[in-house]
Amino acid sequence: MTITNPIAISGRQGVNVTPVLVPSIENVSGNTTFTGAVTMNSGGAEYPLQSDAGTLTIQGNININSGDLVTGNFTGRRGFDLQGAGNGALNGVFTDSATLPIFITKSGSGTWTLGATSSLNGDLTLNDTGTLAVSGAHNETFAGVLNVNSGTPHLDFGAGASTIRLANSSAQAWAGTSLGVSNWTYGTDHFQVGTDNTGLTGGQLSQINFDHFVETGATIRTIGGFGEVLPNAVGDVNQDGVRDIADVSAEMTGLRNIQAYQAVLAGAHPGFTLSDTNFVLDVNLSGSPNNLDVQAELVGLANGGVFAPGGGSLTAVPEPASCLLLALGGALLLAARKRTKLL
After folding, report:
1. pLDDT of 342 above 50
2. I need a labelling partner for 147 at 20 to 30 A (CA). Which of 106, 141, 272, 291 fits?
């Protein structure tokens, strides 16, 4: 069913807790699409949309009622609550302001998709077991923080180059069990929290799991003026959960034929993609695997498993064990070069 009229929804009182709020719009079953613009009228602070089954799609842009802005009926935050076991899509652009921020809360077991680039001034909160997805090449920027309040929600980066960007969230107490990240492509998609590597705490990072990688948890690095959240796989080139001299040999094997090495990793870890393989090979996080990553692997191992963007540097005179490690790595590199010349 398609409804072409513009729609206006009034806010409801309450906060987004379990049980969820009585919805302003509810899709009980089947597929329903609203193609007109959506206006948020004054009232309570929450605007719940619920899909029980099928898909509820909002095609139009989402705006705050201009008349209410003039009369001053709107004050403080406004919550857009995406609920239910069914699926939904918001394909319009949100418009808010610093004094009237829109907060998005995803609850329930369904998947809700953001289908347009928006810059919001509020927070993003993820609850329960469902998924918040980004479709196409879109960027979703939140001036507010990331909260994981319950369950095991997912962020899905979808197809195309997408960015999900939030403010430093290290002060938030996450009550959820974990946050999954799927359809993430290295170098194309960006999960950014804050402006540097302090955007999330170690405890929060331990709750974030990227699909396919052997180790759970995530890392955050200062890259391009943002806190870039990445899989916890830097330095573990052979994806065995251990960082050791075997990763140096794996690095050289992978650089000789990345596609063939991807097939090896996918055999051990089903679903492991070429993008995932590029990430584990790009030890110095330069954006492109190359011979410098062999050096970065050696330096990281010699520094006790600290792998820095750009390759890092040895900060002290190496211990004898470190010297042996470097010597072994050099021998492996020379052997690889000799084998290459013989081919």
Report:
1. no
2. 272
